[in-house]
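Researcher: Please predict.
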Amino acid sequence: QLSCLVKMVTLHGIPQDLDSYPKDLLLFLSPSDYAATGSCRQYFANIGKANLHVLQRGSSRRKRLLLEALTCLEINGTQVNKENAEILGRLVCDLGGEYIRSSGGNLLKQLSQCESFLPDQEEAIRSVISSGNTTFGPPVAWSAFTLNELSGLIPVFDHSILQKIPK
């Protein structure tokens, strides 16, 4: 339906008020389509707020979006800073474990919005959390607020992490 809607909306060119359309619609446009109305950074900031699960995990479109986002944001290695993590939004759900490890805690807030994780992502999340080198600090210092912020990651925590969280 969204793919069909994009065709109708863009029938006479890309509308100038594209930012006012539902974010999910943008999943079916390319950054070059969007370029007439804004920057690629703005495009991916909007994509990061979209329901990425409209596209199947591992689909070519979803993979292409992530690669284009990394190129746009000039992320050449595997380290993602906090600003770029915010722009990527839900696209961080498709980053591999090496990105999660290299980025330290920068991705945790966005990762907590993901519906599921691959085994290497789970291992990387546990490694970053266990290190305590995040803005959230070590699990022994966490509060109810911290757990609320990271609630989407709780299913990934293993016994060694859970036992350190204060009751």
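Model: The radius of gyration is 17 Å.
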